[in-house]
Amino acid sequence: MKCDKCGVQKLSREFPPWPLVESCDHAILHCLRCVTAHAEQHEQCSQCENKVSKTSSRLKQCYCQLKALFPEYEPTFVPQTTAMASGERGYVSMAMLNGDSTSVELNPSMTVSRLREIVRQNLKVPLENQQLIYNGKEMKEVTDSHAQATLAFYQVAPKTTIHVRRLLYSVPSGLDKVVFDLYWGYPASGQDYLDASVLIFQGGHFLGVLDYRNREQSAMRHSGDLMDNYARKGHHLINVNLHSIPSSITHLFFTLSAWASPTVSKYPNPSLRFYEESNPGKMLCEDTIKKLNYSQAIVMGWLARQGGNWCVFSAGKPSAGNAMDYSCLVSTIQGIITNGL
């Protein structure tokens, strides 16, 4: 997840678990370092003008969380780094859209195959589901000349990020009528709603939305609210006729957002299931957000054409915005597309 203030990709645990002030009603988009530094200098929340006392218990907890994440100590061992041709040394990060990341010492001779194995071990993404993207280009294991591709081949520089795209399902050409089931658990008390919306894109250009108000678009249909009070789950079903999607549409992004709540954190296990309309008992793929976050919305995943087939990808990307105003969600999604994902 990228901090909106410093612009650096960080782990989800590097963000405060709650607003600094109880009356703050915005999603948490600034990291712990930015939040505490701003409060020290201005005695204000970094995202709004709410006053923050330097003796605030929440601010103190932020300091404790920072200290736990980044303890100060003198290193007894300095790793040997491999120099690049330019003389630079350093590490490269591998990051997923859900905020999970890992890093590796930058070695120009490291193969893409080895890098994929590190992603499998550290980020728990199976090899068959990985797609590594650097500077908008997918990193293949073998070059056009049938040699082992390396980091040097892709000109990977230190202090940069390789994006890890997780493929959930490659749709066979014979599959047409499918269903995306976006669902969530009820809050601990009462019945409340998340809104499932499909944001439609042509490249990076936003074309429109399918949601509870706009329930029919080209080759798509939105079910509206389907509330299961017995199982305490809410569902929105998105029916899609893949063969009828206009060629101008390149991406369908599936999102869940909170309407009345400032965050989605009180709704357990926001999930996406994908199945053939004629066989709802057989899941083609499933994805669940296991780490509840404090954003207003989640980009759950997307459908895009790749190599002539439609493919379903996982995201789990936090974002501001909801069904009242999609502009922040559109901006988040355009960032995903710009990075070549």
UniProtKB/TrEMBL annotation:
Q: Which Pfam families match?
A: TerD (PF02342), ubiquitin (PF00240)
Q: Which residues form the Ubiquitin-like domain?
A: 90-164
Judging by the UniProt lineage, the source's domain of life is Eukaryota
Name of the molecule in the record: Ubiquitin-like domain-containing protein
SUPFAM superfamilies linked to this entry: Ubiquitin-like
User: What InterPro entries does the record point to?
Assistant: Stress/Tellurium_Resist, TerD, Ubiquitin-like_dom, Ubiquitin-like_domsf
UniProt xrefs under Gene3D superfamilies: Phosphatidylinositol 3-kinase Catalytic Subunit, Chain A, domain 1, sav2460 like domains
| Annotated coiled-coil segments of the chain | none
